[in-house]
Amino acid sequence: MLETPQAIFKSDAYSQILTEKYATLNSHMRQNRQNQEIREIKITPGFNEFADGSALVVWGKTKVLATVKVDNKLPPHMRNQKTREGWLTAEYAMLPGATQERTQRERLYASGRTQEIQRLIGRSLRTIVDLNFFPNKTLMIDVDVLQADGGTRCAAILAGYAALHEYANKLIFSGELDEWPLSHEIAAVSVGQIKGENLLDLEFTEDSNASLDLNVVATARGELVEVQGGTEGKPVPAETYVQLIALGIEGVKKILETTRAQLS
Length: 264
Fold this sequence. Notes:
By secondary structure, the chain is an alpha+beta fold. Helix content is 33%, strand content 26%. It has one domain: GHMP Kinase, N-terminal domain (Ribosomal Protein S5, domain 2), CATH 3.30.230.70.
């Protein structure tokens, strides 16, 4: 005897098919947030009272501290140049206990990864600081990762910007400067692709399993500063790359919109 459509839809077998179908669909989805949702971000300016500027960024489970200290001289490569501009440089480090397995301290030489990240931080932050306000001075941005769960270089850029913002506030309120020295708001976010799905703001496990991941640095106006990353396997269409960059730019705009009030 043939079953009616109504009977089929109510059957245990059909329910099992639906369960398996949606389990397959959800296996690619995040458990606690949407694919294009950013983790909660909290910024605490002035975290270090001895720094010229500082900020602690808690981004999901990732925690990053950035400080600004001013050195009243230029680096050697600029001392013989006829310029009134100052300079900005960055250093990056990860505490040994920041990861599940202890990370060895880099006492003598920075690893290739560390050098790459601190150069990215320095390049990014130099694009938004008018260094004419700091003649014959070097702004030293020190970034330390206290706890790492993916996106540490993006959190480092946000923390560095927040620390510079606090330093700029001090200069304005003290009367040392009468013009705001930061030309743009800046942040960074990771984007990636897992099983064909585009994800924003990757956690460590997602970053480890992504077939393609990028770090997108941009301004609140949607202007692109830098893109870093690439595919981990097969080549991808240029269209996918462009889609991820666009997703990252929108993510940066969201980050700055939601954290702006925390910088005051």
